[in-house]
Design a protein that fits this description.
Length: about 400
């Protein structure tokens, strides 16, 4: 039996379909226990009318997480997480009017798992520990991204009315910059800051060469720049003080949550193997574990893991023309973590550095070479996880060295 599940915030549109594509039943179910109980009843009623005791129930839904999905998996159903882009493309194949409805989407999802289940990925059977790591690691990274966005907004506001601040402070999210900007948010107020006040902020931020940096900051803040009328500058000052307050809170929460990320990651059985990889610390390792998951049957080969990671290239061939291109459809969080690891591995691993340098010597640019290195590191991680062994520099790069020598 095939089931299409189009979910919204407070309900699920369900369609049951048989192997021939005939609709068996449809309903709109509420989110929660009551809705799940009705779904079991619908499926049980239809299965009760068949003689096949081993009938499989395959469910297509546009998400891979949440209590509803967890309940479906726990009930023993095969749950296919359908990418919304795939569902939209499939919908266009069934009709050209452009019409869309929740009930229609449920039909599309049921038909997709009926005809294309071999091309869809079942929801991974990750452990509860891996799910816990995913929750804290994703939230931690989201807070970092939010802090960056608010810092960029702060930068744009300062450029519009107080450009001297951009010259005075190297990093606007630094503790001393936030403290001094909150205290003196306009150019007139900042010009009156004393060396003592600036030095005190630098000391609280634990900076070195305090006297030299304080003098440089004061000189930059007192440099003459184009500005805005006083009333406009006051309005800008009020807005950036709000931004500074948000950035300060985000910074505190990033630090707090980092402890949770490290704690949850350290409790996972694969933590030691993942952390042994070059360029991989506890936080980065937690992000990689969170996005790959720990289902031992999810990646049958290193190539499968690389394809999911988005580090392996895709090939486009037409006639005599054949090119290898980077994958632009990928898990943003995972590729961000893997590229960060690859960059850090340039210093941590001689083998990784040599591999990267060889790509650059062939005329490959920095980012493509780094992506190739990330792809190679994913393969090494896969081998370590499959064999339950820690990273070893010699073993990891021996095969590649032999091929180059040959």
């Amino acid at each position: 039996m095939l089931v299409g599940d189009d979910w919204a915030e407070d309900h699920h549109d369900i369609e049951l379909m048989d192997a021939s594509g005939r609709r068996l039943a449809k309903a709109r179910l509420p989110e929660g226990v009551a809705g799940m109980a009705r779904l079991h009843m619908m499926i049980g009623h239809q299965l009760g009318e068949t003689d096949d005791e081993d009938a499989e129930v395959v469910i297509g839904i546009e998400t891979d997480r949440g209590p509803w999905v967890a309940a479906l998996v726990a009930a023993g159903y095969t749950v296919m997480a359908v990418n919304p882009l795939q569902a939209a493309e499939f919908r266009r194949r069934l009709g050209v009017s452009g019409a869309k409805s929740d009930a229609g989407d449920a039909h599309v999802l049921a038909d997709m798992v009926r005809t294309h289940s071999h091309e869809l990925r079942p929801v991974a059977g990750d452990s509860a520990r891996a799910e816990a790591v995913k929750v804290v690691a994703r939230t931690h990274k989201t807070l970092i991204w939010e802090r960056t966005r608010h810092t960029q907004r702060l930068r744009h506001a300062l450029r519009d009315y107080f450009p001297a601040a951009l010259e005075a402070f190297e990093g606007l999210d630094a503790a001393e910059a936030l403290e001094l900007l909150a205290k003196a948010p306009t150019s007139a107020q900042a010009a009156r800051l004393t060396i003592t006040q600036i030095s005190a902020a630098l000391k609280r931020a634990r900076r070195r060469n305090v006297a030299e940096k304080a003098a440089a900051i004061q000189a930059a803040l007192r440099t003459e720049h184009l500005g805005q009328p006083e009333i406009v500058a006051a309005a800008y000052a009020a807005s950036i003080q709000s931004l500074i307050a948000v950035i300060s809170v985000l910074t505190d929460q990033v630090k707090t949550l980092q402890g949770q990320v490290e704690a949850h990651f350290g409790q996972h059985p694969a933590a030691e193997i993942i952390a042994s990889q070059p360029g991989m610390g506890a936080v980065l390792g937690a992000r990689v574990l969170a996005e790959f998951g720990d289902d031992p049957h999810r990646y049958t080969t290193a190539k499968a893991r690389k394809n999911y990671a988005g580090t392996s290239p895709i090939t486009k061939a037409s006639g005599k023309r054949k090119v290898a291109l980077a994958r632009f459809i990928h898990n943003d969080r995972l590729i961000d973590a893997l590229m960060t690891q690859a960059f850090a591995a340039l210093k941590a691993s001689p083998g990784a550095r040599a591999y990267y340098d060889r790509q650059r010597a062939r005329g490959v640019g920095h980012n493509p070479a780094l992506r190739q290195l990330a792809n190679r590191l994913v393969g090494i991680l896969h081998g370590c996880l499959k064999s339950a062994t820690l990273y070893d520099e010699t073993t990891a790069w021996s095969h590649h060295v032999e091929n180059v020598a040959a």
